[in-house]
Design brief:
The chain has 657 residues and is mostly helical. It is built from 30 helices and 11 strands. Strands 7-8-9-10-11 form a 5-stranded mixed β-sheet, sandwiched between helices. α16 packs antiparallel against α18. It starts with 13 loop residues before the first helix and ends with a helix.
Length: 657
């Protein structure tokens, strides 16, 4: 196969594309055909689809992309460990394991697994800044998602609407961003609860350390300038001189790796002051070198006050055991949809679930890497099964929900790192392998240098990373499109500042109540002609029967003289027993008044139910014109009565099917 051109828009190898098409077109293959066939093996090990045709050109592009992502991921991992309230090495622990697992099991070249701001925030809420709790949370999240998949509970995610998700992510952006103000200004001993944090930050603003504040603001300004430079870089044209292309590449590399560049600059400044014997900055401090020992997750913790049992740890984490798995999966799906719309990739959501979850068996071996991220085998398995239980989407790129590394906290696929991957021209998931190796090397050889990184610089990285999460456009969009949807968004947004689980739960409940109200009070279209025609604009379920009955009675029977009515049921695809009873009572009311209630446009399942109910006075017409002619007493139009032999032949055949 000829090598692909060295462009940042290189397509996935044709073998991978074909594999994705095969998966999407035939997910329900017969068991005999999907057990041991090569195609079945490739479906479970996507690496087999692209590795045989791997080329030197792809290796070069994957290496550049993996290096670019690694230079971005390392400072972000250190920063997200601060958000999670964990020692800095745990951010690095959570940044490499997912890369290795996804190399074998991933189906999207752009997706990168690692710690994210939202998962780090949730970890800080529910693990009390204790690494042992973070590791256990990662492990249990994988088990819970696995159980959800087995029980086919993925549909529960469909009840969390987009306004609820937007409200949560916007609140998380404000919470995370404001939580870093204390580090940006050099303030210490500030509570982590949001409202107390706001109060104490403003109360102690006079204690701001000038060095930290200046360095933090300079780092934010540099990050902003570098981001704007990258966003406004002109595209490369083949006719450009080599010198121009070289300078373009250097600027692109500097702006892409801006996090590493700015953090390195800040560390160099801090080290320069350290040499002089004066240190105006609060530093990150010691970072443990190397990997922690591999062991099972901690099912109990020994403290100075005694031993905390597994049951007590689970009780302490409480709602986090539900919030972390669900929000992690939703975050991954959001990232996947973003890549779907931007790059038009099709990835296997089921395999992505596999690639981003770690089976409890492997998880129990590797309780050594902790809590900002959890992406390994259990996540891979649990996400795969959950996706299989979710409604099918037409185009879902690969999703990497939760990966759990030894001793590492929950993680998700990162949109920012995925964007770096795509812009770097990555060709296959092998780019993640380079990223993982780079993180491991930093754990072995660079931890002594991490000591000099000022916390204000990491705060600047976090603030600039979470700023895009606050979606200001969504408020204007909802105001223009459907203002009622602002209600669940605002409820979620405001309550998430109190407790995350209450905000998400309240927003979901508000959305559910809106959904139930629409089902209980469906809109109806009324035509006031020679014959009164009423058409439910949506389905007809048991909560709506009473409202429909009252409207029909008020329009047809409460007037003088009573009027005949045609109920146009084109949009009614199913009815239940309560609806049948309500319609039967309506037929009786119409018969008492000496007028007729006729039905038009009944779909076969609805017609079958009504015929089976043997309703007295039930009359059905194929078209509205026939019904109107009959009700106006014109000759030649007779209704179909409840006897099955008087229904047209094609209807009888469908009813007996």
């Amino acid at each position: 196969m000829s090598p692909a051109p060295p462009s940042p828009t290189i397509d996935m190898p044709s073998s991978v594309t074909a594999l994705g098409q095969a998966r999407s077109s035939g997910p329900r293959m017969a068991p005999s055909a999907c057990c041991c066939s090569p195609a079945a093996v490739q479906r479970r090990l996507p690496i087999l689809a692209w590795l045989p045709s791997y080329s030197l050109q792809w290796l070069k592009m994957d290496f550049v992309a993996g290096l670019s992502v690694g230079l971005t991921a390392i400072p972000q991992a250190l920063a997200y460990a601060e958000v999670a309230g964990l020692p800095p090495q745990y951010g690095l622990y959570s940044a490499f394991m997912g890369c290795f697992v996804y190399f074998f099991l991933g189906t999207s070249r752009d997706v990168t697994l690692g710690p994210t701001a939202i998962m780090s925030l949730l970890v800080s809420f529910y693990t009390f800044h204790e690494p042992a709790y973070a590791v256990l949370l990662a492990f249990l999240s994988g088990c819970i998602q696995l159980a959800m998949g087995v029980l086919r509970l993925g549909f529960l995610l469909d009840f969390i609407s987009c306004p609820v998700i937007k409200g949560f992510t916007s609140a998380a952006a404000v919470t995370i961003g404001f939580g870093q103000i204390k580090n940006l200004l050099g303030l210490q001993n500030i509570p982590r609860q949001f409202f107390l944090q706001v109060y104490h930050t403003f109360l102690r603003i006079a204690e701001t350390r000038v060095g930290d504040a200046i360095l933090g603001l300079v780092c934010m300004l540099l990050l902003l300038v570098l981001k704007l430079m990258r966003d406004h870089m002109p595209p490369i044209h083949p006719e450009m001189p080599p010198g121009v292309r070289l300078s373009h590449g250097l600027v692109w590399a500097a702006t892409t790796a801006r996090n590493a560049l700015v953090v390195s600059f800040a560390a160099l400044v801090a080290y320069s002051f350290e040499v002089t014997g004066y240190q105006p900055f609060i530093l990150t401090g010691e970072t443990a070198e190397g990997l922690p020992p591999v062991r099972i997750p901690p099912f109990s913790v020994t403290t100075a006050n005694g031993t905390i049992s597994f049951t007590e740890m689970v009780q302490d984490m409480g709602a986090g055991l539900a919030v972390v798995p669900l929000m992690g999966l939703l975050e991954s799906i959001a990232v996947a949809k973003a890549f779907e719309m931007r790059f038009c990739h099709v990835a296997q959501a089921g395999l992505e679930l596999l690639g981003s979850s770690d089976p409890p068996a492997l998880a129990s071996q590797s309780a050594a890497i902790t809590a900002v991220s959890h992406r390994t085998w259990p996540d891979y398995m649990r996400l795969r099964i959950i996706t299989a239980s979710m409604p099918t989407r037409s185009c879902w790129p690969s999703v990497s929900p939760t990966c759990w590394a030894p001793s590492s906290p929950p993680t998700r696929s990162q949109a920012a790192l995925g964007a770096v991957n795509a812009q770097s021209g990555v060709c296959t998931p092998a780019g993640g392998l380079v990223t993982g190796v780079l993180v491991l090397l930093s754990l072995d050889y660079l931890t002594s240098l991490f000591y000099y990184i000022p916390k204000s610089a990491l705060a600047a990285v976090i603030i600039m990373a979470v700023a895009p999460l606050f979606d200001t456009k969504i408020f204007r969009t909802l105001w223009r499109v459907k203002r009622l949807d602002l209600l669940p968004l605002c409820v979620t947004f405001l309550l998430c500042f109190w407790e995350v689980q209450y905000g998400i739960l309240a927003g979901a409940l508000v959305s559910l109540l809106m959904l139930l109200h629409a089902a209980a009070r469906p809109e109806t279209k009324v035509s006031e002609g020679p014959v009164l025609v009423l058409q439910p604009a949506s389905g007809l379920s048991f909560p709506a029967v009473e409202a429909l009955r009252e409207e029909i009675l008020s329009r047809a029977l409460a007037v003088s003289p009573p009027r005949c009515l045609v109920l146009e049921c084109t949009h009614v695809c199913s009815i239940d027993y309560t609806v049948v009873l309500g319609l039967g009572e309506l037929l009786q009311d119409f018969q008492k008044e000496g007028v007729t209630l006729a039905f038009v446009g009944l779909q076969v399942p609805v017609l079958r139910v009504l015929l089976s109910a043997d309703l007295k006075g039930f009359q059905y017409f194929s078209t509205l014109e026939e019904a109107e002619k009959h009700l106006r007493q014109e000759p030649g139009t007779q209704p179909y009565n409840i006897r099955e032999d008087s229904v047209p032949d094609h209807k009888v055949a469908l009813l007996k099917a």
